[in-house]
Structure formats: C-alpha cells, structure tokens
Input
Amino acid sequence: MFKKKIENKDIVELKSNGQNELVLDEKGFLKSVINDFITEEAYFINLINRKLKPKSDLKNKVRQYLTKKKYKFNEDEFDLIYKKFELRTWSYGIINDLIENHDEVYDIRLINKDNIRVKYLGGRKTSDVKFESKEAFNDFILNFVTHKNDIILSEIDNMQSFADTTTSERFILRIDIVGNCLTKDDPVMHIRKLPKEKDLLPDLKLKGMLNEELVEHFKESMEAGLGILICGPSGSGKTIFFNALLEEIPHNKAGLVVQENEELFSKSHPEIVTLSVSNAKGDSKTHYSLAEILQKHALLGGYDYLMVGEIKGEESWDLSNAAFTGHIPITSVHVFSSKAAPDRLVDLMKYSKHASGMSYGSLLSTLVGFDEIVFMEDFKIKEVTQIAGYSNETETLELNPIYEYKLEEDKYIPLNEDCNKVKSKLIKNRFNKNKMKAVN
Output
C-alpha cells in the first residue's frame, strides 16, 4: 500500500516492496512499469489512437496488466496509478503544459534537461520546465516519444520527422528528433504546434497576418485558380496561411495535398485528398517520396489543384512541370525573399533526373505555371509578387510586385496593377460567376 498521503503527489513510481504491493517513491514516475506497458501493448494503444477502440478500454487493460504482474492495490491507489498511465500514454508528461495551456507558444525545443526553449510571437525564451536528470531527459525522447509515435531511431537513421495528430485535441504536433549519434550528447527534439481548428483568412486578419484588402485578394485568387508559391523563413506562418487557402478552393474543383507530415487538411471541402510520404522503417523497403506520389498518382488522378506541403528536393520539378501543363499549383519553400524564390525552386529541380540535362532558363520558364509569390516573415505577409511571364531574351521571369508591407508605416502599399496573365484569369472567373448567376 502507499505509505504517505498521495492526494497532492504529481510524481509517483510503481515499485514492489518485496510483498508485491505498491509503494510511493516521490522521485520516480511509474517509469519502468509504464514503459514496459507502452512497449508490450503498443498495438493496443495504436488501435485506440486510430479510434478503432475507445479510450475507456485503456483502464481495463491497465488493471489487467497490473494484476498479471501480481501487484496488489486498492481502488484509490489504482485511480492514482491510472491517472499517471493516462498522462504518460496520452500526453507528453512534464512538457504537456507548454503544449496545451500556452497558446502563445508555438515552438518547443528540448536541448537538455535544464534547457527547454520556447518560441512565441515576439521572441524566444527558456521555459521553467526541467527534467529531474540527464537520464530522464534521454529516456523521454529516445524511448517514450519514439515508442509513442512508432518511430525507429537508429544509427543508420538518426534523424526523424513526423506528425502526432492524436495526442492533443487542439494541436497537430510536428516533431523532429535528432539522436545522440549526431549530437554526441543528449538528443534534441523540436515540436511545432499547429492548431487543429484552423484559422481562416478573416481570422488571420484579426491576428495581424494580413489586411482586409489582402483577404479579398486571396479569396478571389483562389476562386480564379491562381497558382501560389508561399515562401519565407522557418516559423514565419507559411503552413497556417497555406491551411487557410485550402478552405478557399472552390467546391467544384478537386485538389490533392502531398506532404511529409499530416499538417495540411480541409474540414469543409468535399474533394481534397491528402497523402503523406511513407518512409521505410526497420527492414521494410516500402518508401513513397513526395516526387514519387506526384509522378505515380497526382498527374493521373484527375485533380485540378496540386499542392505540396513544402518543396525540399526533386518534387520541385514534378510540381512545376504539372503547373506548366495546366494544373493549379500551391506550395511553400524556405527562402529569404520573393525574388530568390524562383531561383530556389530551380536549384531544387536539378535533383530530379528528368531535369538534370535542362538549362537554367528552360527550368525557370516552367515557373510561369505559378501566378503569385507570397513572402512571409514573423507571422506577416510582407510581399505579394506576380509572375507575369518569361523572357526568352534575358532568360528571366518577369515579376510584377503588387503589394508590400511597410513596417515603419504599419500598412500595406499597393504597387502595381495585376499583370495581364492574372487579369485574364480574374476576368474569366468573374464572367463564369455572372454566367452562373444568370442561369440560376
């Protein structure tokens, strides 16, 4: 039995006192038993994560597990123990508060037991969260998080990127882990919080990402089928803006989203299909990359919109080629300015065997399938630039800046009117809308 009052204890450890009874240890966290349970019952937990079994089944499974291990406990003791099992199974332990109760925090980086850094609108700081020991920190990342998400971290593959879509009811968690084979010390883990209740364009206006004029601009851009390239540094708000654009795709069009992690989604559109890459695990040879999905499915699937969560390699060629042949592209890329974005895509195209023999100008010309480049920084749209065409003479894209955010004036400055390429698409869209109104 427990030897002390336990009502206010947040940390307990399950141990045998030699008589197969439970005792309280203030320094532990049910570590060995919970870790064993998660490992042995990984399939069962996965069924619950996939909603094939209700969460309530976990309580009976834990009771059966402890009984099988010949531990004795009363109901009060079991209720406390179960809460710890539940916390450990369905949450992220001592960093869970940063995930669930601090909406201002959108990045969490675990560097060592005393250094849990957070990023929020306005900067970065060290949180108050600390692990009790170096061993606890390593165990949390290398054992608990990997087992929880069915991830294998090995010497061969010592970096993993994945999305946890089930643990938090409010956030998709994009998680990146670098193991200690590369760090030569503690592993490093980074978490990006992406709201499940996505912000729409008017919501992003209220949060200062854009103004009312740009809200209306992007609504019409999506309705007219403009191809959009979102660019900017890490943490600039690209995924959040991308998710908002998905909800503006007309319902009489079909779209495909191809992504590394499950971050982009639509809750309202009837025909947006989302596919995620499949990386080989362990002895498995199964692997589907962004480029392979685009090559084998996207171009043959009858989609109007083709969307890639983030361009990182040879898929740049496949998407640009699809855009050049009539599909409507939307994607994002890490780059430092609007002007640099086309060059970055061309550099990434060269990873494709299909583009390896083509000249820079030939590759650059395929980008006329895109219509607008949106540059973002610090959760703000800073520039909107249109791709007006391609000059064979100078082998350059003809760029037409239309909006620029002036920090010193805190407002958007209209620069130029729409280019002819975009104008024609907008006019066609308005004509079709008026035609439909007349029919109805």
About this structure: Residues 420-439 form the longest helix (20 residues). Residues 1-29 have pLDDT under 50 and may be disordered.
